[in-house]
Fold these 2 entries.
Entry 1:
Amino acid sequence: MKVEPIIQVEQLTKKYKRAKEPSVNGISFSVHPGEFFAFLGPNGAGKTTTISILTTTLSKTSGVVKIAGADLETDARKVRQQIGILFQNPSLDYELTAEENIRLHVSIYGIYPYRPLYRMMPKAYKERVAELAKMVGLKDELFKKLKTFSGGMKRKLEIIRSLMHNPKILFLDEPTQGLDAESRRSLWEYLQHIRQKENITIFLTTHYLEEAEGADRVCIINKGKIALAGTPEEIKNHLLVKKTMNLDAANRKQLIEELATNFCDYEEWEHGVKVYYDQKTPHGLLQHIKTPLTKLEIRVPSLEEAYVDLIKMQEGDKQYVGN
């Protein structure tokens, strides 16, 4: 049975007044329910414009966008009911407690009527807050003021706010911007847990390419157009990002002779010999090497390398069009 996309974008275009070229130029893509979808692109590529349109904060020039079955143009209110958003720049009141920030948010968005005290809020509100606070590890900090919170804790509070209305899609716009490495890792652990428990579709934009490495699919936009789309592995294979092994031996000359005899693509450098291989695993190549090795390092190419290569190629006007 075919599952309908939860996000469907067809020929989306946005052209600002006085601009020579559209910021977003007829792009099309889809996102499946429950998918972890990464939307990447350099500054000025049209990434922020696209996510602003999808989250109803910016109008489009033309094209069709459907979110969870609702048309963006004719039913924007229903679209907003289906999405949660974690903005790049936090919008929190540091003089309020975590719970007061949540209470103010749900009243502004019409999820629950505002009450001046927590004890006056409906039972459903209290249960949802408690459930999400426990899930992200803020249960003991709910009634503390935000000015005592770390950057990671503030981000977790924003996750609670964005999930209060049980959205089907969570838009993450640079969610770990400004966080240290430990806070970034912790936040992603909670996000993945929430994704599984709540069965939420995640739509991510990020400058940290390693965060997109675990995505189900990646879509790269550049100069307002889709440059390439697919799984991280498909993108790396499409761009022929080379897998390498770093080898060395006490008798490096003999090692190089063996590599040459086996028609290996290699280059010598100060730390040994870098060998390029096409096999899915390096086992087949190593079987042919008889010289005793003093070093063996297998390096798997990253999505970041593929991304950088693609952008460089496009700057040189070599176009890649995704599926």
Entry 2:
Amino acid sequence: MIKDSIQFGSKTIDFQLTFSDRKSLGITVTPEMEVLVKAPVNVTLDKVKKKLKDKAPWILKQQSFFLPFHPKTSAKKYVSGESHLYLGRQYRLKVSEGKTNEVKLKGKFIEVICPENANPEELLRKWYLEHARARFSQYAKPWIERFKQYQVEPSSIVLREMPTRWGSCTPKGKIILNPDLIKAPKGCIEYVIIHELCHLVHRDHTQTFFELQAKELPEWEKWKMRLEVLLA
């Protein structure tokens, strides 16, 4: 494998190149925004770079599409006064000392009550996970029913922390959602759910995939942008 890059305007596009016994050059942009190039063994590196420059606008567009699926929330210290998101709204964190472990919404605050030696971060993450499990199931249920018209249904929906993804769909039909999505508005969560349900019908990001996504969620671009801006 060869790792190299090209320059397109002010943008640097890194790529990974492999040669194989094939007739044409193929370019893939992965959900991790990696650019993978497969080329015939007789193609020179200069020709590969020329092809990449020709396709640069498409590559950057694909990377931009996957960008909101990459969590970018800044590191927190989990101390009183910090701002934390829940379902798209900003709340102030209030850490109070108490005899029990408890997290609750109280007005404009997310209040964490715990003993002095407890870990507020761990308690809050557990609280987020519990709410994500309940909300995601609630939001996904009507969409799963709707997508049965396309003769598809996820084998399961599971939550898993993913440092570079908001959601994914396995070849066997399991939809995986990042619990950190609970910090985004309902529309953003539904957008990711619908996006992965569309993958049960069309595995790749083809024109038919986007047509289906637009049919089911006409405002998907608005929610995509909202997710990108809110959790940047």
